[in-house]
TrEMBL record:
The family this protein is said to belong to: Belongs to the ABC transporter superfamily.
Transmembrane stretches, start-end: none
Domain of life: Bacteria
GO molecular-function term, one example from the UniProt record: ATP hydrolysis activity
SUPFAM superfamilies noted in UniProt: P-loop containing nucleoside triphosphate hydrolases (SSF52540)
Protein name, entry field: Branched-chain amino acid transport system ATP-binding protein
Matches recorded under InterPro entries: AAA+_ATPase, ABC_AA/LPS_Transport, ABC_transporter-like_ATP-bd, ABC_transporter-like_CS, BCA_ABC_TP_C, P-loop_NTPase
Length: 249
């Protein structure tokens, strides 16, 4: 069985407009891969194809050797594909702990016990404590989300995503909107992710990309221009001209 995600010949057309062109790539277990490219390159389209928001015109997506093409968005989450978003989507009046509890209860089909404490479900409370510790959110556990700095809110969102126990984690511009003084929180959190988790980072912050990714895929006009190590990408003259040199996404 193939470990991780395998995409073969993935294409997407909207009428005569082709937004994804024969995309073929793999995310093996433990991968730390970044997807970069200029505005309109098709990065968001690709992520939406992986998560089931969009259906491909052609091609296959395999998770651990099994096709997930027929699965809905919710079914793909349950199968192990999870995605964060460019804008935080949290319950701002709840505490950090209460926010993290929600997806765990949903995963365990215990949504009627949203505000239950450890005397009711000790295994769930233990998992919350672990996530808080892993993302260094313990001091903020009982603070309402609305009072947190934006970088801290992004960490809470990451905790919620990890609570679904994904096999493939898609980080959609994890540093978007985060002040430069807080961006190190995102970098450090990504570095601490479980070693066996496959991570795809969609990001325009090249400093973050070079700090956390060991493979980079460059997407241009819906097609893969190249894939390689950070060193190989930097050395490619087309990439420097089309993306790195322009500095825009």
């Amino acid at each position: 069985m193939i470990d991780g995600l395998a995409v073969n010949g993935l294409s997407k057309h909207f009428g005569g407009l082709q937004v994804a062109r024969n995309l073929t790539l793999s995310l093996p277990g433990g991968a730390r891969t970044a997807l970069i490219g200029p505005n309109g390159a098709g990065k968001t389209t690709f992520a939406n194809l992986l998560t089931g928001v969009l259906k491909p015109t052609s091609g296959t997506i395999l998770l651990n050797g099994k096709s997930i093409g027929g699965l809905s968005e919710a079914e793909r989450v349950r199968a192990g594909i999870a995605k964060t978003f460019q804008i935080t989507n949290l319950f701002r009046d709840l505490t950090v702990r209460e926010n993290i509890r929600l997806p765990i209860l949903e995963r365990e089909h215990r949504t009627k016990k949203v505000f239950c404490r450890s005397d009711g479900t000790p295994e769930i409370e233990f998992e919350i404590v672990q996530l808080l510790r892993d993302l260094e959110l313990t001091p903020l556990a009982d603070k309402p989300v609305r009072g947190l700095a934006y970088g801290q809110q992004r960490l809470v969102e990451l905790a919620l995503t990890l609570a679904s126990r994904p096999k493939i984690l898609i980080l959609d511009e994890p540093a978007a909107g985060v002040p430069s003084t807080e961006s190190h929180l995102i970098v450090e959190a990504i570095k601490r992710l479980p070693a066996d988790l496959s991570v795809l980072i969609i990001e325009h912050d090249m400093q973050l990309v070079f700090e956390v990714a060991n493979r980079i895929i460059v997407l241009v006009n819906g097609a893969i221009l190249m894939e390689g190590t950070p060193e190989e990408v930097v050395a490619n003259s087309q990439v420097r001209e089309l993306y790195l040199g322009g500095g825009h996404d």
